[in-house]
Amino acid sequence: MGEVKLFFGPNHPGMHGNFSVHMYVEGDIVVKARPLPGFLHRGFEKLMERRLWYQNLALIPRICVPEPDINEACYAMAIEKIAKVEVPERAQWIRMIVLELARIANHLWSFGGIGGPLGMYTSMFWSVADRDRVLDIFEELTGARIYHMYIIPGGVRKDLPPKLEEKLLKLMDYLEQRMPEYETFILKNRILHTRLKGIAKIDTETCLKLGVTGIGLRATGVPYDIRKVDPYLFYDKVEFEIPTATEGDALARISLKPKEIRQSIRIIRQALEKMPSGPVNTKIGDGNGLRIRVPKGMAYARVESTRGEYGYLVVSNGGETPYRVAVRGASYPQGLYGVEHLLPGTRIDDVPIWLDTMGVCAPEIDR
Length: 367
Prior knowledge:
three-stranded antiparallel β-sheet, alpha+beta, globular
């Protein structure tokens, strides 16, 4: 039997994002796979070096559309390290709330996304509808549903609107009540177990070799989370757990998502309780308005995204634009090396399962 080349994506209901995988198959078995990015935005890092420091806030959320706020946080934290600026305490708590909301929204998106490849459309309808409730909060807070441009160097753009805290608590109550329904109706579904158990497996050694973090690593039994091992913001002042599994397959990874949502709800509640009043931003750098100057220096800032460690290396030469920016996209290892080295040997219909449960975000490879 000879090899046949197939194109999976970018226009395919099982493809997550503007991405393509060139598959060479024999029958329905993948014998070789090559990721083909470049369908979305390319050259983010070089574009950032040609824009003013504040102008980049409108560009960087697009590096990961389902979870854009992590880019704002990493970028701002790196600049603050270089400029040695102390962010107001209230702004730090608000940042935590925003990042955890983004985490919930992306987990819901991914949890629903698995319904397409499996034919479980109820999971997709449920997740998208519940994610919209989170986007409603973002819209009231920032004026936008997807790209928020809310976390800025020195703090956040503005304080919480009146009564938003009350609405947040109601949303947390609602989502917490929904998690048992997700687990009962979706995670215990025979279709899900038949299609995901033992599929797209990865072990701890391979994760560490490729640089896979996040749920991909935690599903192999390693409780590695930047929020715990290298706390930023005020994650060391709240209590939460790191859910893990040991099987390392697609079922283990998808099963961790509702558990992580529960922990995010727990963090948001504590943040609302502990958050003091006060200012939410502070002046950074020299200059006024958009044209600020950040002192010479270099810094790396990292956060825990839904896909693992997400980082920004920022270099300043004292000018009005960054001298160099390098982004550590969390899904780069599983989206590039994982596709090339771990998809061969799987079936064609298992390819979207890998991409969804490993959380491959295409622009992180296009950056």
